[in-house]
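In the laboratory, one determines a bound structure by crystallizing the protein with its ligand and collecting diffraction data. In a computational setting the workflow is compressed into a single prediction: the sequence and the ligand go in, and a structural description comes out. We illustrate the idea with 4-nitrophenyl phosphate.
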Amino acid sequence: MVCLGNICRSPLAHGLLQKKVDDRGLDWYVDSAGTGAYHVGEGPDPRSVDVAAAHDLDIRYQKARQFIVDDFDEYDLIFAMDSSNYSNMMQLARNEEDQQKIHLILNESYPGENRTVPDPYYGGDQGFKNVYDMLDEATNKLLERLVRAKNN
Ligand code: 4NP
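The predicted complex, in structure-token form:
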């Protein structure tokens, strides 16, 4: 799960999906990163921590890191929160195989619409609630899709 700072949006996507994967007893590894390096080593933004906690989700274990080219080797699927994260990673992709791993997360909820998760960093708490709800729905859809693919 990839955003710009890896402190607001992608930590929520990471925590939500990891919990859903664990709850189903799947051994899939979930991670997150930012295309920018501004917040490397920091924990998630307190506003993301709070909105997650309000839904019984603890994301305080996470630490921001920057997306690196090796992530294309490490991960099967890579989800961008917005079109700028998407194009930044596309520029880092070494080949078509890397490129095909990158998707926009909201296309799970709204196939083909290329919607973006708005950056809540400069806004208020409502923005974080909004982001949480979008990512809760998208990670539900994603998990359903992957479980269906696994069983087929
Ligand atoms: P995120 O939000 O990409 O959802 O983690 C941001 C966090 C920090 C900054 C921008 C977006 N920043 O410019 O520092």
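Residues 3-9, 34, 38-39, 119, 121 surround 4-nitrophenyl phosphate (CB under 6 Å). Keep in mind that any predicted model is a hypothesis to be tested, not a measurement.
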